[in-house]
Design goal:
heterodimer; A: little secondary structure; Herpes Virus-1; two-stranded antiparallel sheet; 2 helices; elongated; B: alpha+beta; Ubiquitin Conjugating Enzyme; four-stranded antiparallel beta sheet; 11 helices; 46% helix
């Protein structure tokens, strides 16, 4: 029997690799995890592990201000291992009440893999003008 | 704004899904607005609030989830960190320790656990906190009585089953004093019926206690002081 393929639709799925995101920033000897095993989880609508804690939209979706998921709305990892949509955590850190802390554990937010600021340029303290 | 509403709508739906498990419910005040909610939760077990259901008025600010939810007890509750008059709550996560990962549901859970772990050294209601610190027994009895009267907790399982209203003037006076949020130890000592009598004229019960103490209006001294003197003080 002979089959002639006239045309086909290629469909690709993508997901953020939440674990790799951390490993990327770890010392070189970190082993990549075996692919394929973690794919079994079914769509679990309100699995808290799979949503950005700030907007509560899936990591694989995008923050509420974006239209398309993916590189335009990337994820960001903290050294504390917590993950958010980058746009969401920026919005939070921009508020005075954030005190520059991770919303999950209140440790000072440090983006994983981010270079330490040069000593002569300390991060500008955010000071809202307070007028009585 | 759209993101805020999307998130709130999802939270309400999620909470409805597991409300049979948690006992926590959330409903919209106006069906077409995501600004105001009423949440309920059961009083925690092993506390004077057990068996009661507590209603919370919730307001989601425009900046939610970057700004804290506003919460207030609708159901009157006798607790050091909740105003016995207004229901305002003293809880750090609703103020300075807010985090955008908190939700309607997790905040209600926090209030529920606040009921089991009062923080009398950072009170919202100083009078209640004072009673809590001086006599846990008096505190518990009043808190339990409030749970019965306001939160629908089953009345005490006292074996004699005596009806409350038959307890005589002193007992009724004590109950009235409790409902007014007065330390009933003090009310008993002054003579609860007298305290209640003045309070029923429309004076703030705590002020009544203050004045009666000041004038030493008790027992044999009552006649000597005279109730005109009390009224004069109360009006001043």
């Amino acid at each position: 029997m002979k089959i002639t393929i006239n045309n086909y639709h290629a469909i690709a799925l993508w997901r953020w690799n939440l674990k790799a995101g951390l490993q990327q920033h770890q010392p070189a000897n970190a082993q990549p995890t075996a692919e394929g095993e973690e794919e079994e989880e079914e769509e679990d609508d309100d699995d808290d592990d799979d949503v950005c804690g700030i907007c509560r939209v899936a990591y694989d979706g995008c923050c509420p201000d974006c239209k398309t998921p993916g590189d335009e709305c990337p994820l960001i990892w903290g050294e504390c291992t917590h993950v958010f949509h980058m746009h969401c955590i920026i919005k939070w850190l921009d508020t005075e009440s954030s005190k520059q802390q991770c919303p999950m554990d209140r440790r000072p937010w440090v983006t994983a893999g981010a270079a330490a600021p040069p000593p002569d340029a300390p991060p500008a303290p955010r000071q809202a003008a307070r007028v009585a | 704004m759209a993101s805020r509403n999307k998130r709130l709508a999802r939270e309400v739906a999620d909470c409805q899904k597991d409300s049979s498990k948690s006992g926590i419910t959330i409903r919209l005040v106006h069906p077409d607005s995501l600004d105001k909610f009423v949440g309920t939760f059961p009083g925690p077990q092993g506390t004077p609030y057990e068996g009661g259901t507590y209603e919370i008025e919730i307001e989601a600010p425009e900046g939610y989830p970057f700004q804290p939810l506003k919460m207030r007890f609708i159901t009157k509750v006798y607790h050091p960190n909740v105003s016995s008059q207004s229901g305002f709550i003293c809880l750090d996560i609703l103020k300075t320790s807010w985090s955008p990962v908190f939700t309607l549901r997790t905040c209600l859970v926090s209030l529920q656990s606040l009921l089991s772990t009062p923080e009398p050294n950072d009170p919202q209601d100083a009078e209640v906190a004072k009673v809590y610190l001086t006599s846990r027994e008096r505190f518990d009895e009043t808190a339990r009585y409030w749970a019965q009267v306001y939160a629908g907790a089953p009345s005490s399982t006292s074996p004699n089953g005596a009806s409350e209203s038959e307890g005589g003037e002193d007992k009724q006076g004590r109950r009235a004093a409790q409902l007014a949020g007065i330390d009933w130890g003090i009310a008993d000592e002054l003579g609860a019926p007298w305290v209640v009598r003045f309070a029923e004229m429309g004076f703030e019960p705590r002020k009544v206690v203050e004045v009666l103490q000041l004038l030493n209006y008790r027992a044999d001294n009552r006649e000597r002081v005279g109730h005109e003197a009390v009224l004069e003080r109360l009006f001043s």
